[in-house]
Specification:
The chain is α/β, with parallel strands linked by helices. The protein has helices spanning 30-40, 80-94, 127-139, 164-167, 202-214, 230-235, 264-277, 296-300, 302-311, 316-333, 367-376, 386-389, 400-404, 434-453, 461-470, 472-479, 486-490, 495-499, 503-507, 509-521; strands at residues 9-18, 23-27, 49-55, 64-69, 72-77, 99-107, 113-119, 144-148, 150-151, 154-155, 218-222, 285-287, 337-341, 356-359, 381-383, 419-426. Bound molecules: acetamide and zinc ion. Acetamide is lined by residues 291-292, 341, 360.
């Protein structure tokens, strides 16, 4: 049976179940029923039958079952979420055919948090494109859309109190084409201004939140701070330690120029941003970023040093923990809690224990030990390790099978007691168009959905690949994107290996994908 993610229990038997526009939806969960009717309206099928939605309080939050009774279908769930996932499973099973083979399914997720992150800062993605991503996520039973809205190279969410953020902070002079020669400050640029007018209004953000909610997805904004803030600093230079004029960054990488956490105005600025957008995003968690915060400027800054002395903070990392705790307290006052990248654990002894860490790095010295220490003391963590799940990296470097094999064990953990869930990020420095976006995002999203939903026992990449292959037509027809040939994902036979003789190709996924496109054209 072609279902991704693989359900917990699935029993096949002979015969067919009708599932089409002539199917009547009855019972509980009104909004899900209405959604299901809408989804099926153009699927022609024979015979009238019924899908009856029943509420079963013995089920868990996202659990559901699907069973045939005579010609009808009984769906059981405790909540709208479970009922919705039953509909998504039936959509895949019927694949627009007006029926599916007899089946009995009982299903629930491995992890409660199943996230996808989109970087809208480096390159902007339209509201319609984001709706496509949400549709695909929903079909794969993913439930958190983590929206990276600000970075050094662009500010992309309207903030009425600070209009410069989108008037000026959205625009960079030009865009680097590769990292080649980066360390000599001579990387190639495209020479074209980027980002003017490319931001989301608060109404557009509301529209996306509402669209996602109908599909059982929460939208979590990320305002990355105190690092990755050059776009904001270019508008309001007094927020940085040196308070000097600067431009929205037109280089990728990690910038020394960060918010000055010795300056009380910075705390007010950050709280103002939170105040303007928290109500747009009803999800309980707000992502504070917190990654890649070089402490060079803070070490040299009289204000930062004075703040550390005043508060008895023993290190610059402790100053970041202090900043995080202030933000958490503010978020708590709005009924929210906080998530941050794993660098927030650098001074974890003074970080409030309710914060959730998102563990993405193992190449920074001590990062893994710090994450493990956090989890050992009960700290909740989301797993997103760069060299298993990052989507912007080439398939030749990271075949889909590697992502499929990702688990808490890969992180060197003995159990997943404090694993809140998993997330797959899509960073878009080198993803400038939708064609490349689709190619790099959807195959790995489909793979990852199974990693964070399906039970680890009976995990088989071969079985997954067979379903994935069988569902190419389904995804194209339902969502409009094409999946490249398996050879690309296996990574062994892409020309990358034969052509690559230097770092250029390794560092530049954009050109690597051009090669993949040639492969697709040649039908290999
Ligand atoms: C990250 O990839 N900088 C979280
Ligand atoms: Zn400072």
């Amino acid at each position: 049976m072609n279902v991704i993610p693989r359900p917990l229990k699935l029993e096949e038997s002979t015969g067919k179940i009708n599932f089409s526009s002539s199917t009547e939806m009855t019972g509980e969960f009104d909004s899900v029923r209405a959604f299901a009717v809408n989804m099926l309206c153009d699927v022609k099928g024979e015979g009238r039958n019924t899908v009856c939605f029943k509420k079963d309080d013995a089920f868990e939050e996202e659990e559901y079952s699907i069973e045939k009774r005579s010609g009808d279908v009984i769906v059981k769930a405790k909540t709208e979420k479970g009922a919705f996932y039953a509909v998504m499973t039936m959509k895949q099973l019927s694949s627009g055919r007006g029926y599916f083979e007899n089946v009995k399914i009982h299903d629930k997720p491995k992890y409660a948090y199943r996230g996808f992150m989109l970087d809208s800062a480096r390159h902007f993605w339209s509201v319609d494109k984001i709706k496509q991503m949400i549709d695909v996520m929903a079909n794969l039973k993913m439930n958190v859309f983590h929206w990276h809205l600000t970075d050094d190279q662009g500010w992309r969410i309207e903030i009425k109190k600070y209009p410069l953020l989108t008037e000026k902070g959205s625009i960079r002079k030009d865009t680097p084409l590769s990292l080649y020669n980066y360390w000599n400050n001579k990387e190639e640029h495209d020479g074209k201004e980027y980002g003017r007018g490319l931001f989301y209004t608060q109404d557009e953000a509301r529209e996306i939140v509402a669209y996602a909610k109908e599909r059982q997805i929460d939208v979590m904004p990320e305002i990355d701070m105190p690092g990755h803030m050059v776009a904001a600093i270019s508008c309001y230079p007094h927020l940085s330690c040196k308070a000097e004029e600067t431009q929205v960054s037109n280089r990728w990488g990690v910038m020394d120029n960060i918010l000055c956490c010795g300056n009380d105005e910075v705390y007010e600025f950050a709280k103002d941003i939170i105040d303007e957008i928290v109500d747009i995003f009803p999800y309980k968690y707000f992502h504070i970023g917190g990654d890649e915060v070089p402490k060079k400027r803070w070490k040299e800054c009289p204000k930062c040093q004075a703040k550390m002395k005043e508060l008895g903070l023993k290190s610059e990392n402790a100053l970041q923990s202090h900043f995080n705790n202030v933000m958490l307290k503010h978020l708590n006052s709005k009924g929210k809690s906080m998530i941050g990248w794993n660098e927030i654990l650098d001074a974890q002894e003074i970080l409030e224990p309710e914060v959730i860490a998102q563990w993405w790095t193992n190449y920074h010295p001590g990062a893994a030990e710090k994450a493990k220490r956090w989890m050992k003391s009960g700290g909740k963590t989301i797993l997103s390790l760069v060299n298993y799940v990052y989507m912007d990296h080439a398939f030749a470097i990271r075949p889909l099978s590697k992502t499929y094999g990702y688990s808490y064990r890969t992180m060197g953990l003995e159990n997943d007691d404090n694993v809140a869930g998993m997330e797959i990020p899509q960073w878009t420095e080198y993803i400038r168009d939708e064609e490349k976006f689709d190619m790099n995002t959807y195959p790995r999203l489909i793979t990852f959905a199974e990693v964070c939903w399906s039970d680890d026992s009976n995990k088989s990449y071969e079985d997954f690949e067979r379903r994935f292959e069988n569902m190419r037509g389904y995804f194209k027809k339902s969502y409009g994107f094409e999946l490249p040939h398996q050879k690309v994902y296996r990574g062994k036979t892409t020309p990358w290996y034969s052509i690559n003789k230097n770092k250029y190709w390794v560092k530049d996924p954009y050109f690597e994908v051009k090669l993949n496109r040639e492969l697709m054209k040649n039908g290999k």
